[in-house]
Amino acid sequence: MVSIKTSYTKMKELLGIDVTIEELDNLLSFAKSEIDDFVEEEDMLVIDIKTSNRPDLWCAEGMVRDIKGILEQEAGIPDYEVNKSDYKVVVDSALASTRPYIACAIAKNLDLTDYSIKQLMQHSEKIDNSYGRKRKRSSIGMYNLSMIESPIEYKVIDKSHKFVPLEHEEEMDLPTILEEHEKGLEFGDIVKGYGHYPILLSANGTTLSLPPVINSNDVGRITEDTKEFLIEVTGTNYETVNVVLNILCQTMADYGADIYSVEIVYPPEIRDENDITPLLEKEEIIVDLDTINKYLGVKLTSDAGTDKLRERRFECESLGKANLKVKIPPYRKDVFHWVDIAEEIAIALDYNKLGATKWKVITTGGLLPETESENKVRSILVGSGGIEIFSNILTEPAILTTNVNMTKVDLVKLQNPVSLTYSVLRDRLFPLLINVLSKNTHETYPQSIFEVGEVVKIQGKRVLTQTHASYAFAGAEASFEDVHKRLHMMLDLLDTEYKIEPISHPAFTEGRSGKILIAEKICGVIGEIHPSVLELNQIWVPVVVFEIQLPSIPTLNCKKKFTD
Amino acid sequence: MSNLEDKVALPPEAIKLYKKISSLKEISIKELEKVMQLDRGKMEYFLSFLISNAFVERTTIVNQKYELTDAGRQAAEKGLIERLIVTALLNKQSLNFSELEKILDCDKQEMNAGIGYLKKLGILQIIKGKLSLLDEKADINKTMQEVLKELSKGNEVDITKHQKELIQRNLAFVQEIKDSILKIVIPYSESKSMITESVDISRLTPAMIRDGSWKTTKLRSYNLDGAPPKYYPGRKQPYAQFLDEVKQKLAAFGFQEMRGPIVELEYWNFDALFQAQDHPAREWSDVYRIANPKLGKLPKENHVKLVQKAHEDGYDTGSKGWRYKWSPEKSARLVLRAQGTSVSARTLVNLPIPSKYFSISRCFRPDTVDATHLSEFNQAEGIVADPSITFRDLLGILETFALEIAETDKFLFKPDYYPFTEPSVELSVRDPKLGNIEFGGAGIFRPEVVRPFNIDVPVIAWGLGIDRLFMVKHGITDIRELFSHKMEWLRSAKMS
User: Fold this and answer.
1) A358-399 tens-digit pLDDT
2) Is A319's Cβ below 8 Å from some Cβ in B?
3) Which residue out of B231, B391, B483 would a mutagenesis test of the A interface target, given it has the greatest number of A Cβ atoms within 10 Å?
4) Same domain? A247 vs A188
């Protein structure tokens, strides 16, 4: 999801109609967007765009382009003229293995306000961040054309090269930019991975930028006075670089700019042919309307299908029978398959007007045997007076270890926790119950609690998920009997024989605790929590607990599950 | 006021309590419990005599207590981030970002927040990426640090000065503690003359029934107005109970339950769902990765190769595919299940046709936990597979979910985006108080998803935001309550 800020008034101006916030929200849904917030005093809309593969929608102009189709104000692919310029970019073969592709265009006669510059910058930033994969796959640069002479060189340069980066006043060499400039710190790793420094240079020797990190402070600074732009996109993916340029050219054309092309001279190591960008040739896909009709559950004629697709800003040509040749606007690269065209038709028909149909797939439903088994155990423990607890599976290491006197525990850990509180997976439940008791010492005793839930352990080199049940009883009078009788009744109701044998366990008092065995296999623990653990958790009454692995109870249907 | 002319009979324990309260004039019920060493239930019973006769008056009070959040506890222990930064800079004079990060050994976001904080106060400057102090003497937020320390020890401390900031920075929250205060209305000395100790029998014993003495014994009337002793029956956790009900409903609609592991291969979580390997949702910041072991084993079945082809060139679907070199290593990485759809993906292997499946599964995302975000949540998910199915049928299924599970006829379909379905739709339901709420999402699986599993029929995939629904139904505004460990709530939350 991408979120942008734009002006409500400007949005209405672009649409050419007066709409309330609610009406606008409804219209935006056709561009897979919605209003997240409206700050009336600032005339500011916060709009969330749900699609990650339509960067053309991540600005007001882009959304309006789609909405105008739905409003039937415009139809088909928006067209604009592109004239040839004398500008050329020469690409260095040394970039072949790092950041080989570039696409450029020139926009003239632009009259940008402070607001529209900010909007343009916002759009570029969103594209760089998400579609450009934080500038790794593609990044955008915009420059003041009047300071640039052709041919422009896109090449590898020595690290000693110096220029004044944006927002700075002094010249810096390239390693210094990566180490000290704000953007260098943010995006420098991309360049470090290349092992060399890519640079864009004007024929007069001026530096345009160090892609994808930072523009120069003079050529690369866009202001209200800039009337002629050079737009450039570099990156690792040819298609991405070109579609991003197409999106920007379309938006510039919507602003009323005249667009000029730029020749890209590639060495044979990168591409066999030179490009004249923007590449505005329209991709085509042939679809069978009968198949789409069946898929959606509608009956559209070729003419109706054509109309609907033109509303969605495609061009369409009937090839006879039910075949349609669909031309895709050059600012879109998200059409992979006819199902994508089916969705466009469904959107144009309006999901809320399609008419929902009744169920026709009749099948037998039911819960899994393991859920039924867990439910049996839960109802027995509820019947034993237990209050059910629902804890996080992701928890804090101390809760599972030091808080219950345990040190050597092999927990499944996260590589990238957001906080220590949620950094390991629980491998057992009773420590979490102790944690619950420690937070409720001001509440009436006795406290009788339980949890039935999944735990995750490492077994050998494999990760194992299985369900455990744990019960805890806390109160001035709590004794071993309180848990023993409940465990006994539970296993008796489940028709399972068990044994308890003495155990030495750091969380429990020796001689007052044991391991639970079913069919000679250890499958749980029962006993009185050691007073030192109680002290540590500031619980001032005795606590007795049991915990048992449900897959070990033969009359239940719970299974151990390995991830692989 | 009671009528002083009448005689009042009180049990001896009630008289004892009366004398105590009378001597103290006023006492909280919790204090009284301690002083009298009397079980709360019995005490409530005897108090009811005193209250119903208006000897004693009872009022409920709510005390506010400030408690630390996880972040607050950390700040109490390690120190506030701005203080740590100042200390680091005092020691080293000037540092760049990465040096500071190393010294602090904390979350980057937190560090940046601390830097921003100090910058705003004019204590710190950043010149060419170097951080240094402008005011070396600033002992910033010293008293706040002390307040945190006291709070972490559970001590009472005056926090008025820092109250707003502590809450704003999510370091502390307000907890309400209820108690009752008992106040004497008529001192014992004044009503003593009208009180008699009741001698009648309160308990019917087995012996009395057997020997017939009940016939000649006067059994004391029960006080029917008094509050009974507190009693907490065993019960299911309210949210777990709600999930049970949703499961029952889905089973009744003919959905068969499915399950999957919590620790999941990226293969099932993303690749099998046609999410490209450089998709932003697969990044470090969007999915939890397992540290030990880092990798699992890809399934041995043929579908792995076909999924690879679907990514690279669309396989036999006619799709262009994502056109990149697919990596089996990335696919074998272990993650915490980030979306319930991974369970559906597993079910695609040998999928019976027709079929309908659901699962309610715990999913995980690296979010900072606050009132609207959890690091783990529950998703209801499922699929419907049948040759006859159309997109309008999918809308029909969502309509049923809106009517039967969200229990509303005010809903709307909106175009949506998922990498694995086309068309995709959002189900938005209208809540009278909260406005439009995204309740579910659905779509028809793309051919690039189902073809590698040799499926030729449309498969609908749907998901419901049940956490949100439970919150709306129970008027819960803080999502952390779903996993609340407050005994008070667990014991007394209303069933519905």
Assistant:
1) 878 889 999 999 999 999 999 999 999 999 999 999 999 999
2) no
3) B391
4) yes
Would the CA dihedral through A308, A311, A314, A318 be positive or negative? Answer: positive
Q: Note whether B390 contacts A561, CB cutoff 8 Å.
A: no
What is the per-residue pLDDT across A243-284, written as a single tens digit (0 to 9) for each? 999 999 999 999 899 999 999 999 999 999 999 999 999 999
A392 is a domain residue: yes
Domains of chain B by start residue, with CATH:
8-65+178-216 (1.10.10.10), 71-173 (1.10.10.10), 239-492 (3.30.930.10)
Residues A252 and A119 in one domain: yes
Q: How far is B198 from chain A (nearest CA, A)?
A: 30
Task: Name the domain boundary from A256, A277, A298.
Answer: A277
Average of pLDDT values for B22-34? 86
Q: What is the pLDDT of residues B16-26, one digit of tens each?
A: 889 999 888 88
- Rounded to whole angstroms, how far apart are CA atoms A329 and A340? 14
Percentage of residues of chain A with pLDDT beyond 70:
100
- In the predicted structure, residue B192 carries a pLDDT above the cut 90: no
**Of A331-340, A479-488, B473-482, where does mean pLDDT reach its minimum?**
B473-482
Count up the domains in chain A and report the number: 4
**A391 in contact with B at a CB cutoff of 8 Å?**
yes
Give tens-digit pLDDT for B338-378.
999 999 999 999 999 999 999 999 999 998 888 888 899 99
Whichever domain contains A552, its CATH number is 3.30.930.10
CB pairs under 8 A between A and B: 299
Last residue of a domain, one of A323, A351, A379: A351
A 3-32 residues inside an 8 A Cβ radius of B: 29-30, 32
A207 CB within 8 Å of a chain B CB: no
Does residue A357 fall inside a structural domain? no
- Tell me whether A370 touches chain B (CB under 8 Å): yes
CB contact under 8 Å between B415 and A343, yes or no, is yes
With bands split at pLDDT 50, 70 and 90, how would you rate the model's confidence at B3? very low
Classified as helix, coil or strand, A153 is strand
Task: Verify whether the Cβ–Cβ distance B396 to A386 is below 8 Å.
Answer: no
CA angle B45, B49, B51 (to 5 degrees): 105
pLDDT (0 to 100) of residue B38: 80
| Domain-embedded: residue A362 | no
- Residues spanned by the domain of A447: 369-562
Instruction: Note whether A496 and A553 are same-domain residues.
Output: yes
Q: Which of B490, B435, B495 is nearest to B468 (CA)?
A: B435
**Which 224-243 residues of chain A touch chain B by CB within 8 A?**
239
A93 and A221 share one domain: yes
Tell me, what CATH number does A121's domain have?
3.50.40.10
Minimal C-alpha gap between A112 and chain B (Å):
31
Nearest to B280 among A133, A336, A425 (CB): A133
How far apart (Å, rounded) are the C-alpha atoms in residues A136 and A236?
7
Shared-domain flag, residues A338 and A473: no
**Residue B164, pLDDT above cutoff 90:** no
Q: What is the pLDDT, as a whole number, of residue B315?
A: 95
Interchain CB distance below 8 Å, B446 and A29: no
Q: What is the pLDDT of residue B200?
A: 59
pLDDT of A555 > 50? The answer is yes
Same domain, A505 and A544: yes
Are A148 and A89 members of one domain? yes
Q: B199 to chain A, minimum CA–CA distance in Å?
A: 31
Which residue in chain B is spatially nearest to A414 when comparing CA positions?
Answer: B290
Contacts 24+ apart (CB under 8 A), A146-149: A146/A227, A146/A228, A147/A202, A147/A206, A147/A218, A147/A219, A148/A87, A148/A202, A148/A204, A148/A206, A148/A208, A148/A219, A148/A230, A149/A202, A149/A203, A149/A204
Residues A255 and A298 in one domain: no
- Between chains, do B391 and A296 touch, taking CB under 8 Å as contact? yes
Q: Quick check: B422 and A337 CB within 8 A? A: yes
Q: Is residue A358 part of a domain?
A: no
SS3 letters across B407-453: CCCCEEEEECCECCEEEEEEEEEEECCCEEEEEEEEEEECHHHHHHH
Rg (Cα) of chain B, in Å, rounded? 32
